[in-house]
Design brief:
mainly beta, AIM24 family protein
Length: 202
């Protein structure tokens, strides 16, 4: 559970994620993930869905989503790439958007786009189990199962490659297996469980 103390400021959060609050709060549903009409159109075209509400007031507001784990990411004039379903809450000053991530870009079968969070402030990510932060360097690229991917940040080049997984070897794969490869300098957030992907059980 995430407790946010507010003194007249605001946060953007996943719609329906408020579980309790004290003090005085105002809740407002935002269209297009808080990006206005242009963002709403973009999300309809890309199928990268994110329904967001703005919470503003004085007091403490608690957020949660199906008892998933929460990780805070501190951004300093940076951009974070995150699966829309893994984004719980952001400072209101952070800009959210949608970006093209490649031919095999959406790990959940939602299209080929990913949500971005940019600026200076904090973003709260949710994951199925405690998220693990893995560092990528030029000498040590990283390959991630798309079903376990949560987010990434830094100067990273993202590509998609076919591969063989343990499940494929055991004859349990449900489709073409592929992984996400990251090269460069940055951080990748992964969760200790796998969601269904457009490649089947990868």
């Amino acid at each position: 559970m995430l407790a946010v103390d507010m003194t007249g400021d605001a946060v953007k959060a996943k719609n329906g994620s408020m579980v309790a609050y004290d003090g005085t709060m105002i809740f407002k549903k935002l269209t297009g993930g808080g990006e206005g009409i242009r963002g709403m159109v973009t999300r309809r075209l890309t199928n990268e869905r994110m329904t967001v509400m703005e919470v503003k007031g004085h007091g403490t507001c608690w957020f949660a989503d199906y008892a998933t784990e929460i990780s805070l990411v501190h951004l300093q004039s940076e951009k974070l790439y995150v699966e829309s379903s893994n984004l719980l809450c952001t400072d209101a000053g952070l800009r959210t958007g949608t970006t093209f991530t490649g031919l095999r870009g959406a790990t959940q079968g939602n299209g080929i786009f990913t949500t971005t969070v940019e600026g200076t402030g904090q973003a709260a990510l949710i994951s199925d189990g405690p998220a693990v932060i893995l560092r990528v360097t030029k000498q040590n690229p990283l390959t991630v199962d798309p079903g376990a991917y949560v987010a990434h940040q830094g100067k990273l080049k993202q590509s998609f490659q076919s591969g063989v997984t343990f499940r494929t070897l055991m004859g349990e794969g449900g489709g073409e297996a592929f992984q996400i490869r990251f090269e460069g300098e940055g951080l990748v957030y992964v969760q200790p469980s796998e969601r269904n992907t457009i490649a089947g059980d990868v």
